[in-house]
Amino acid sequence: MLGQLCHQAGIDAIVLERRSRKHVLSRIRAGVLEQGFVDLLQEAKVATRMDTEGYPHDGTVISFEDMEVRVDFRKHTGTSVMVYGQTEVTRDLYEARDQTGGLTLHDVDEVELGNAALDGDEGCTVSFTHDGQRKTIECDYIAGCDGFHGPSRRAIPAEKRKEFERVYPFGWLGILSETPPAHHELIYANSERGFALCSMRNERLSRYYLQAPLTDRVEDWSDDAFWAELKRRIPSRIAETLVTGPSIEKSIAPLRGFVCEPMQYGRLFLAGDAAHIVPPTGAKGLNTAASDIHYLFEALKARYQERDAAAMGGYSERALARVWKTQRFSWWMTKLLHRFPDTDPYELRIQRAEIEHLATVESAQQTMAINYVGLPY
Ligand code: DHB
What we know:
Blueprint: H1 2-8, E1 15-16, H2 21-26, E2 32-33, H3 35-43, H4 48-53, E3 55-57, E4 59-64, E5 67-72, H5 73-77, E6 81-83, H6 86-100, E7 104-105, E8 109-114, E9 124-130, E10 133-139, E11 142-144, H7 151-154, E12 162-177, E13 187-191, E14 194-202, E15 205-212, H8 223-233, H9 236-241, E16 247-261, E17 264-265, E18 268-270, E19 276-277, H10 285-305, H11 315-337, H12 345-360, H13 362-373
Parallel strand pairs: 1-7, 4-13, 11-18
Antiparallel strand pairs: 2-6, 3-6, 4-5, 8-9, 9-10, 12-15, 12-16, 13-14, 14-15, 16-19, 17-18
Helix pairs in contact: 10-11, 12-13
Bound molecules: 3,4-dihydroxybenzoic acid.
Residues 30-32, 186, 197, 199, 207, 280-283 line the site of 3,4-dihydroxybenzoic acid.
């Protein structure tokens, strides 16, 4: 995304990718895009397919045992979210990059960042192994968009960064199936058997998740067991008409919140999972990576187009202000919708009261809607 935006602005960028293009395009990732991300894709001129094949959603349903609340995004914010898979966004970006002739190196390994701390005229370097050879790129800046396990964050000396973490005591078991969605909007369900989510990619492709113990493995869950458990957790009117079928992907992921401060160190700028992780409830992971890219791109444009030497210095502060708000929202949704090992009758009444508050207080729905469609950049 940053590479494509830079290309539009006449800023040279090389993308280094650890895996193959085939691998990147085979991963099933998030599926709900905030309005700001939709605008960013339009700015990057990669929105044509999303505009025709994506599904704008004007609201979502939250259920708690026998209660259902619909939160109307359009009514409360005047906008909507876009259901369009991250895998499709990646495919569109690859195609745009093919057309512009931008350089993306795949299967890159043993990446080392050099001189990232230097603020002088010297620039910095990235060294790596590619095609069996050791190579080095000299550059002005490094965008560390290399995920939680990548080398960028660790290139910031430990004493120069502060890390904040919340580990949740359960995971999400997800499946993708070639079946019509359970409902025309997403359903987030808190049931006495735990959380469930009914999502989708298109009219023939559905995505479902179940809260599951961290000790469960994918092999422990047959498709039949998954569907049976899902039906027990979602509103009965939805369960009755649910169309089931074989899963075409099944995976399990742990839940955690994580933030690294600051998000920049000299010439290195962290973005996305390299700097922060959210629990998936509310679909903020990809979207928060996109807002980082917006701030980083704005800084790069000011630096190169307006020769504003100070522009890069404000990135971390601007990005983190929004990062913490999406952490808060993801934490709130996760707390509201899951059964924790220590959820006692008192906590359950609090969850129910929060849902009743949401059901009856318009300003509570508005707060949820504003956050779900995405806070302004
Ligand atoms: C999806 C994932 C989420 O975490 C979420 O809140 C909504 C949808 C999805 O993969 O479709």
